[in-house]
Write a structure and sequence with these properties.
The complex is a heterodimer of chains A (296) and B (352).
Chain A lengths: L25 H30 L3 H9 L2 H34 L5 H13 L2 H12 L6 H6 L8 H27 L2 H8 L4 H30 L2 H7 L9 H10 L3 H28 L1 H6 L4
Chain B lengths: L2 E10 L2 E11 L4 E5 L6 H9 L6 E6 L2 E2 L5 H4 L1 E4 L11 H10 L9 H14 L15 H14 L4 E5 L7 H18 L2 E6 L2 H7 L2 E6 L2 E6 L1 H6 L4 H6 L4 E8 L2 E4 L2 E6 L6 E7 L4 E4 L6 E11 L2 E8 L4 E8 L9 E6 L3 E4 L8
Parallel strand pairs in B: 3-8, 3-9, 6-7, 7-8
Antiparallel strand pairs in B: 1-2, 1-4, 4-5, 9-10, 11-12, 11-14, 12-13, 14-20, 15-19, 16-17, 16-19, 17-18
Helix pairs in contact in B: 3-4, 3-5, 4-5
Classes of the chains: A mainly alpha (296), B alpha+beta (352).
Chain lengths: 296, 352
């Protein structure tokens, strides 16, 4: 591929050959690598291994018995539904917020940027409590909701709302810096060629951010499936009804059903690993394409 | 397509970018908007395109008022400074983009779009590169693809923003000539923005010199070079030296010495004398000439350039003489301008 001298330099500079000014001695390199590896082994790899070991403590049969338990199946189903709802909601909101922040100027823009980051800084438990305060039986809208027979807290809508709140930043955060860097040049070109706003978005803006969007969705999905704090507050932990997988794991663990707890936990970990593998696969398969659209 | 710009003003967040600009662009003309950065030339181009809307004033396309039309409705071909090619589309799809996004009833068939884009690739001399991605093209090739893409929609006017700004000198020269030929062949009304006076002078039928949101002068390259209407234009186009002089009853004075050049119609009072390095002749020291001491010489191709310190080293001017017969020029010399301009000192001026 031709070296593109005219584009703004991308983050990937070619590696320098020979001893670079920033090169370290062998000893330092080995020490650094060893520290990083040990830390990783101790804090990431070991727990993951333990999860899977514990899950299969009573053999394959115990594992399958644990995950085919009706309550476990219901938790899995609920987790997937909630993830699907929050990912699609945040896809729409995230793209809209990123578009607004990156592509035009308006009053209160920095306020919006701060709001996007809010879920990162607010404890998920507080997020959950806010929804209880709003929609709970004693909350602001509680009586009205009750009169109309709408259940939000201790039901799917509440869990979805809490999860959407917690996972909101992922898509937007992934898109904003990229869209800001890309500017509005391509959009102006498309408009000057007669494209409508929607076609410009579809044929120009979206392809330019597709990889960042995909990463955002994957991260958002991983977090949505794993969310505990906010969901714990709003779900009510009704077995077979409002328990998501993380909640189910906690309940089982508290009841000393270790094998069952770890079986569900291993499933959750597996979903995370699949997400990670998917991301790596995409990077490997479309590396060149990602580089040209200034993705990661 | 004639374009008429009438008293157009543009402000960005109360910061004025253009102050009441008027300009008539003739049909089929190749016109350059020339000025230093911040002169408003790109803003004017974007206003013509409809990428910006004027704060006041009107832009006419032919006889219709286009001021409030959107960029899509104006049907202009715009070539961006950094080309803005769609990175994810192949060359052929980039060129066909403007046709593909038309509403269904006006959209040519897929085969027709393909035929048109390969025709345009021929026109810009890039046949065979249909399947390439923009990242696989050189700067000059990208520039031409951007031009082909803009031409694909059969625009009423072609607008180019710093079309050669990002290219190296050799490619720039070639493309300039090629663009001129292309313009003569297809005959679009073409407006381009540049800060490179050489580019404007070589390429354009008429040059619009701009400074600080105003048009300083509109004229053919000869007119703006030979009869600059303001000190800014004189200093901006070509090389120049400036001397502060005083006019007193039709006589030009440099410090306390009278110069033997007529004061034209410049009123009495302080004034500024502009001359170009090559428009002087060395004379035997005599009354009425500009006397100075040579402080430096440089050989410059067929010319020899001299820095002169005039009147106790207060003023510096530069002159250029044919190298062949100026080998022995040194020390104290006197020069007489052959061509010059005088401007009253009050006139707005900003050298860049």
């Amino acid at each position: 591929m031709a070296v593109d001298a005219l584009q703004p330099a991308t983050a990937h500079a070619p590696p320098a050959h020979g001893p670079a000014a920033t090169g370290e001695t062998i000893g330092v390199r080995v020490a650094l690598i060893a520290v990083a590896l040990m830390f990783f082994a101790l804090f990431v790899f070991l727990p993951l291994v333990v999860v899977f070991l514990e899950a299969f403590q009573t053999g394959l049969q115990g594992f399958f018995a644990a995950i085919t338990n009706p309550d476990a199946l219901s938790a899995i189903r609920l987790t997937l539904i909630v993830a699907a709802i929050s990912v699609s909601a945040n896809l729409v909101f995230g793209v809209a917020a990123a578009w607004a922040i990156a592509k035009f100027e308006f009053r209160g823009k920095s306020f919006l940027v701060t709001l996007v980051d809010l879920p990162f800084s607010v404890s998920p438990v507080i997020a959950g409590l806010v929804y209880v305060l709003l929609f709970g039986a004693q909350g602001y809208f509680g009586p009205w909701l009750k009169d109309h027979g709408i259940a939000i807290i201790f039901a799917l809508p509440g869990i979805a709302l809490a999860t959407i709140f917690v996972t909101f930043p992922f898509v937007a955060r992934e898109l904003i810096p990229l869209m800001q860097e890309q500017g509005t040049g391509d959009e102006e070109a498309a408009l000057s060629l007669g494209a409508s706003g929607f076609k410009t978005f579809l044929f120009v803006t979206l392809p330019n951010v597709k990889w960042a969007l995909l990463y955002g969705v994957l991260l958002c999905n991983a977090r949505a499936m794993g969310e505990f704090g906010a969901v714990a507050v709003v779900s009510g932990k009704i077995r077979g009804e409002t328990n998501t997988m993380p909640l189910q794991v906690e309940i089982l663990y508290n009841e000393y059903a270790f094998t069952a707890a770890f079986a569900v936990a291993s499933l959750l970990a597996l979903l995370a690993l699949v997400t990670l593998a998917l991301k790596t696969l995409l990077e490997w398969r479309f590396g060149d394409d990602i580089a040209t659209t200034n993705g990661h | 397509m004639e374009i008429r710009i009438a008293n157009v003003r543009k402000e960005f967040e109360r910061y004025p970018a253009l102050h009441g600009v008027s300009l008539d662009i003739r049909s089929g003309e190749l016109i350059a908007l020339l000025g230093p950065s911040g002169s408003g030339k790109t803003t004017l181009l974007r206003l013509i395109a409809g990428l910006e809307h004027p704060s006041a004033g009107t832009i006419y396309f032919g006889n219709e008022d286009a001021s409030h039309k959107s960029v899509q409705e104006r049907n202009v071909g715009f070539v961006f400074q950094h080309y803005a090619l769609f990175k994810h589309l192949r060359v052929a799809d980039n060129i066909g983009f403007g046709l593909k996004v038309r509403p269904r009833k006006d959209r040519p068939s897929r085969a027709e779009i393909r035929r048109r884009s390969s025709e345009l690739l021929d026109l810009v001399q890039l046949s065979g590169l249909e399947r390439r991605f923009p990242a696989q093209l050189s700067g000059g090739q990208r520039q031409r693809v951007a031009l082909a893409r803009a031409l694909a929609i059969e625009p009423r006017v072609l607008l180019l923003d710093e079309p050669f700004g990002a290219l190296d000198a050799q490619v720039r020269r070639d493309l300039r000539r090629w663009l001129r030929e292309l313009h003569d062949k297809i005959g679009h009304t073409t407006v381009f923005v540049t800060h490179d006076q050489e580019e404007a002078m070589e390429l354009a039928d008429r040059v619009v010199v701009m400074s600080q949101g105003r048009i300083e002068q509109v004229g053919t390259p000869d007119e703006v070079y030979d009869q600059p209407s303001s000190p800014f234009v004189f200093a901006f186009i070509g090389e120049s030296s400036e001397l502060p002089v005083t006019i007193c009853r039709g006589q030009v004075w440099l410090d306390d010495r009278p110069l033997s050049i007529p004061a034209d119609c410049v009123p009495d009072g302080p004034a500024r004398l502009f001359l170009r390095p090559q428009d002087v002749a060395v004379v035997d020291e005599s009354a009425g000439a500009i006397a100075g001491v040579v402080t430096a010489t440089h050989r410059h191709g067929g010319l020899r350039r001299f820095d002169l310190a005039i009147g106790g080293a207060h003023h510096r001017i530069e002159i250029a003489l044919p190298a062949a017969d100026s080998g022995d020029v040194s020390g104290r010399i006197a020069v007489l301008p052959r061509r010059w301009r005088l401007y009253p000192a009050g006139e707005r001026y900003s050298k860049t």
